[in-house]
Amino acid sequence: MTSNIRYKSRIPVKTEDSIEEKQYVGFATLPNQVHRKSVKKGFDFTLMVAGESGMGKSTLVNSLFLTDLYKDRKLLNAEERINQTVEIIKHTVDIEEKGVKLKLTIVDTPGFGDAVNNNECWKPITDYIDQQFEQYFRDESGLNRKNIQDNRVHCCLYFIPPFGHGLRPVDVEFMKALHEKVNIIPLIAKADCLTPNEIKKLKDRIREEIDKFGIKVYQFPECDSDEDEEFKQLDKELKECTPFAVIGSNTVVEARGQRVRGRLYPWGIVEVENQSHCDFVKLRNMLIRSHMHDLKDVTCDVHYENYRAQCIQEMTSKLAQDNRMESPIPILPLSTPDVDTEKLIKMKDEELKRMQEMLNKMQQQMHDKEQ
Amino acid sequence: KKFTDMINEDKRTLELSGHVGFDSLPDQLVSKASAQGFCFNILCVGETGIGKSTLMNTLFNTTFENEEASHYEQKVELRPHTYELQESNVNLKLTVVHTVGFGDQINKEQSYKPILEYIDAQFEKFLEEELKIKRSLFNYHDTRIHICLYFIAPNGHSLKSLDLVTMKKLDSKVNIIPVIAKADTVSRNELEKLKIKVMSELVSNGVQIYQFPTEDEAVAEINSSMNTLLPFAVVGSVDDVKVGNKMVKGRLYPWGSVEVENEKHCDFVKLREMLLRVNMEDLREQTHARHYELYRRCKLEEMGFKDTGTDSQSFSLQQTYEAKRKEFLVELQRKEEEMRQMFVNKVKETEAELKEKEKELHERFEQLKRMHQEEKKNLEEKRRELEEEMNAFNRRKVAAETLMGQALQGCSQQPFKKDKDKKK
């Protein structure tokens, strides 16, 4: 009996096995191969932080990456900041987690919005972003493309002060100057200044104003329709929570029996990683754990491509004007009509017209004379 | 000897042998003042949304009407509101002035100007009243700003550049008390560092903020200790939160409740104490005796008044005024003359120009007339020529026609001849 059963139960397995063996090609291991190669290659990410001084930008970056990026920082006092211009400072660190290496670059913008006259204070920032695009463009079009360094800015965290009623003119102007060059993620800084009701009101107001002024902030990609309900729900919550209200902290405090990053007040302890206290966890998950690569993709596919197309258009129209044969970058010449031949054609046209008129006149004269 | 010199001689102190009763003078003064009512004017300077209206509501335990300001004002404006308050038979006419749109513009270089102009305007009004011939200072509604509360945003590191520039412009015009607004976002040791940093920046830039007076022994101690606690870190709220089994004014957070009147949480109580309960009268005095007097002196000096002349004799205001007036009238006359002269010159010039133009026009007219005549002559000639040609042509035509007519006749008469010829 048992042998029969065994024999019976084996036959289907065996046939299935062989069927599978015949049908199994093996490219299902591609994801694993990609994973292995990428771990070996390592990743890079460039994050820009912008906002007035004292908004907690460096504290937040330290909290996000659980490290101390800003050592020996010199903070200017009020008098020195009256006429301050915006600087661009880069900090690059190599961090590793479970064998995955990340080269993280933080681009800091000290001085933004600090002077008394902040006209066009975002210009150094847009210039920097354009420079990185230009550099990449040249590298990409060069002959030796083995070691291209990608210094393009993948994401810009913009810190909105929580003390006002919404966006201020400088916030609007900054975001409008940058929204087509970089992914902007607006954040409400120092959110421990607002009660939950106030946070909701402020978020609604900011979302409204972003729509009103036509600012294109980074949009989370739609999740696939075949994801499970839980994931979709989380995704929906995430999108409704923007802009994130964040709190950062460099210090560890004791709360509810655990040691957590937080801020100690006489009336309570704010925990940075407590979701009911602030949206820090959401930001971290979004920025690092799920959408880091999407941010890079959007930068490459959208912002960089826009820059490149614009650049090429400018160059070809310039070339046509200057009549130069060589160009620094190999590009297909557009069929723009030569300016000289155009002039000639115009002249000939005019001559023709004049002759036509004269003929008409003469005919008329003859006609008149006959009569 | 002059009468004035005699009065300043040798004051003697005498002992009283009984109770006279003039120790009631302060009480008389107080009851008179209370009957009249007091006047107090607060200016709140701070960026939009920083909590100025909320703090006023909290301080005076009432709700002053105030609409939420927008961030998109083009310029800074000042909005004064006056209220009548009463507490235990004491009437207070309170004017609260808020800055609207402060700190919102991208270019804030002119932001301090409207504030300065407002303060000066109130001084000017008072000065005008003082200089009137028929004046009523006793029931004049004094709108001069007695205290300016400057709201510093708690950004954690130090003052903003705008704050420094503005306070420097205002410190000689008004009593300034800086406060750190929304202080429930600053933890305790951050707060200590921030207070020290703010005060050191103010001191190193020579900004003179209001010091609570320490001459009066009754309040010297508390005032001097409060002076060290500046700037006050305040939190404002008109909402109640439950703490224990009481309802107190505060803000409810997921991690705890901030109580506005708890001195361990913020300095609101200290501010109220200093501002309203202890030093209100001193603020009014300082405004009148120091800031207003400075304004008045500068203004009068501008106008040309002096206290002492070149020979060290004091002028009377009246004489100086008369002299100024005469000077002014003379100046006015001179200007009138000048303008009249200019007018006459201008008229002459324009007349001359017009005459020129007229002449030119005349000449042109003559020229055109001549041309016209010539052309007419030419055309006449051409006409004549054409007519001659036409006549000649007609004659030729007639001649040709007759010829043709003859030829035709000839043809029709001899058709056979032709045929015959052909046949031949």
Automatic annotation (TrEMBL), chain A:
Q: What is its main location?
A: cytoplasm
Keywords in alphabetical order, please. Cell cycle, Cell division, Cytoplasm, GTP-binding, Nucleotide-binding
* SUPFAM superfamilies found in the cross-reference section: P-loop containing nucleoside triphosphate hydrolases
Recorded GO cellular component terms are: cytoplasm
Record domain Septin-type G: where = 41-314
Q: Which family does it belong to?
A: Belongs to the TRAFAC class TrmE-Era-EngA-EngB-Septin-like GTPase superfamily. Septin GTPase family.
Protein name stated in the entry: Septin
Automatic annotation (TrEMBL), chain B:
Q: Does the keyword GTP-binding apply?
A: yes
Q: Which UniProt keywords apply?
A: Coiled coil, GTP-binding, Nucleotide-binding
Give a GO molecular function annotation for the protein.
GTP binding
Q: Which Gene3D superfamilies match?
A: P-loop containing nucleotide triphosphate hydrolases
**One Pfam family in the UniProt entry:** Septin
The protein's matches in InterPro entries, at most eight in alphabetical order, are given as: G_SEPTIN_dom (IPR030379), P-loop_NTPase (IPR027417), Septin (IPR016491)
Highest rank taxon of the organism: Eukaryota
Question: Which segments constitute the Septin-type G domain?
Answer: 36-302
* Recorded coiled-coil stretches: 318-403
* Family, per entry: Belongs to the TRAFAC class TrmE-Era-EngA-EngB-Septin-like GTPase superfamily. Septin GTPase family.
Q: What name does UniProt use for this protein? A: Septin
Species of provenance:
Oreochromis aureus (Israeli tilapia)
